[in-house]
Specification:
333 residues; alpha+beta; paralog of FGE (formylglycine-generating enzyme); four-stranded mixed β-sheet; 8 helices; 10 strands; 13% strand; disordered N terminus
Length: 333
């Protein structure tokens, strides 16, 4: 409870500092590039006009699972979403503060919009190379827990003055579909999947550099395959049959550490797991080889197929809403 009160107090300043920017954004809602202050690291953000999202799959869709129904509609507000999955270069600025400190020493750039956030801690160093030799430069970061991915968003919010978070499951699926209604963003013909995705049939048993396959119709890369992606949501097999699933900007707020929803499938998955509606639950076994006692809050050891991308809502949330996204600690759940 003490942690949540502290976080709420510090996040109260974000809506005030961002009010002018939010008003400007409402008039100029376009894609943009965010540069992490003091570095040359940037993130490309694509504007997603809100609307009615069709979530889930029809009963006759090939590969469909029971947790994908019933298909339903959700109204979503405008948001930006990362054009690519977060890469190791982007993630390791957060993981290893010394990297950021060294880069800051080489520049005089000052971020006037910087938001002060209490206790933005960095992950404990991993006990081994979490890329497992699959590559770093230009490749998606993997093996982080959902808590670590959210902490990255919190860190990026503090650095840039813009509120970033993980996408909700509904936002993710809406962005993946890009206006389509088929099993994939390009339709139902899975013979085309290799043009858009790295998966079990073409990945050579490893992840690949981001953005090397075709984007979907809205310009987003690797929404199918490469690495599966964290969302904000708790995983409930029956969530789509619950009344809260159809509320505006619906998401299943987590109450327990496991399971959480990952979307998109990965380099290690078959075609059916890369469908827009496919849902996967996180598992405690993703820490199976972690030798630490207790096991790390920050790292998985057996999830080299899971990464994430970020979103930024156009409408600035209230301090209370922001606190809901960031206040939970693994030990609180």
């Amino acid at each position: 409870m003490k942690t949540k009160k502290i976080v709420l107090a510090f996040f109260t300043c974000i809506p005030l500092l961002s009010a002018l920017m939010s008003g400007l954004s409402a008039q100029t809602f376009i894609s943009y590039t965010e540069t992490v202050p003091g570095t040359k690291i940037h993130l490309d953000m694509v504007a997603m006009r809100g609307g009615t999202a069709t979530i889930g799959s029809p009963e006759n869709e090939t590969g469909r699972k029971n947790d994908e129904g019933p298909a339903h509609s959700v109204e979503l507000d405008d948001f930006w979403i990362g054009k690519y999955e977060i890469t190791w270069e982007q993630y390791e600025l957060f993981v290893y503060p010394a990297i950021e400190k060294e880069r800051n020493a080489k520049t005089t750039t000052v971020n006037k919009n910087r938001v002060r956030i209490d206790a933005v801690t960095s992950p404990t160093p991993p006990f081994t190379d979490m890329s497992f030799g699959m590559g770093k430069t230009g490749y998606p970061a993997v093996n982080m827990t959902q808590y670590a991915a959210l902490s990255y968003c919190r860190w990026l919010t503090e650095k840039t003055g813009h509120f970033y978070r993980l996408p909700t499951e509904a936002e993710w699926e809406y962005a993946c579909r890009a206006g389509s209604t088929g099993a994939y963003s390009f339709g139902n013909d899975k013979s085309q999947l290799g043009e858009y995705a790295w998966y079990s049939k073409n990945s050579n048993e490893k992840y690949q550099k981001v953005g090397t396959k075709k984007p979907n119709a809205w310009g987003l890369y690797d929404m199918h395959g490469n690495v599966a992606e964290w969302t904000l949501d708790q995983y409930f097999p029956d969530f789509y049959s619950r009344s809260e699933s159809v509320k505006r900007n619906a998401w299943a707020q987590p109450k327990t550490l496991y399971p959480r929803v990952v979307k998109g499938g990965s380099w290690d998955d078959d075609a059916a797991d890369l469908r827009c509606a496919a849902r996967s639950p996180s598992k405690a076994s993703w820490k199976q080889r972690d030798p630490q006692i207790p096991k790390s809050d920050w790292w998985n050891t057996d999830a080299s197929f899971v990464g994430f991308r970020i979103v930024r809502p156009l409408k600035q949330p209230s301090a209370e809403e922001i606190a809901r996204y960031f206040a939970s600690q693994p030990q609180d759940l």
